[in-house]
């Protein structure tokens, strides 16, 4: 049962909604803008509405498996944490995209919402504050990801959930390696609303 659940979680999280929606609009987002299949690049290359749709779908594929594991199947905390990590890994390393994928931010937020709505809300507010102040999506994402496990540790005080948030933050930050290089060089693009 648990192995099947983890497999399904990975496959669901692997669905590249950004790529699919891009194709619906006649664009290959892997060859447009930053080349990423996440909501930010979709918003840049296709439009804000498409970006919001991808953001929502990517959040749901992190939220639903973890929420069901925790509140419907009543799996133990250790397994719920494993489901959370699997969802982020599935999005970032999609089997449908030759083990490439997004950067895990939206899916990570979905996971946090299922683990602790309070932590998720604080992380979202932190992300929004940094983004609105600097204009950098990547900087907001990197700092928020790093802070998520610290907040989980102090607010929820659940070892397994904290470990899941920590591992997810490592994956998300690693996926932002090229953004970090550009931020250091001062060549990172700001996301400007027109």
Automatic annotation (TrEMBL):
It is found in: Cell membrane. Keywords: Acyltransferase, Cell membrane, Lipid biosynthesis, Lipid metabolism, Membrane, Phospholipid biosynthesis, Phospholipid metabolism, Transferase, Transmembrane, Transmembrane helix. Pathway: Lipid metabolism; phospholipid metabolism. The chain crosses the membrane at residues 6-25, 52-73, 79-99, 119-152, 158-174. NCBIfam families: glycerol-3-phosphate 1-O-acyltransferase PlsY. Probably interacts with PlsX. Pfam families: G3P_acyltransf. The keyword Transferase applies. One of its GO terms (cellular component) is plasma membrane. It catalyses: an acyl phosphate + sn-glycerol 3-phosphate = a 1-acyl-sn-glycero-3-phosphate + phosphate. Its main location: membrane. This is Glycerol-3-phosphate acyltransferase.
């Amino acid at each position: 049962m648990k192995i099947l659940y983890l497999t399904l979680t990975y496959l669901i999280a692997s669905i590249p909604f950004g790529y699919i929606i891009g194709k619906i609009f006649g664009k290959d987002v892997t060859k447009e803008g930053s080349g990423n299949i996440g909501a930010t690049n979709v918003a840049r290359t296709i439009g804000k509405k498409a970006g919001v749709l991808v953001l929502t779908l990517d959040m749901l594929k992190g939220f639903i498996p973890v929420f069901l594991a925790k509140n419907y199947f009543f799996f133990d905390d250790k397994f719920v944490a494993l489901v959370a990590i699997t969802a982020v890994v599935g999005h970032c390393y999609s089997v449908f995209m030759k083990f490439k994928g997004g950067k895990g931010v939206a899916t990570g937020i979905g996971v946090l919402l299922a683990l602790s709505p309070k932590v998720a809300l604080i992380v979202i507010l932190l992300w929004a504050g940094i983004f609105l102040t600097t204009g950098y999506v990547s900087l907001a994402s990197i700092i928020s990801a790093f802070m998520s496990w610290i907040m989980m540790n102090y607010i929820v005080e659940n070892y397994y959930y904290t470990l899941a948030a920590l591992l997810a933050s490592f994956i998300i930050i690693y996926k932002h390696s090229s953004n970090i290089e550009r931020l250091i060089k001062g060549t990172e693009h700001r996301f400007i609303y027109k």
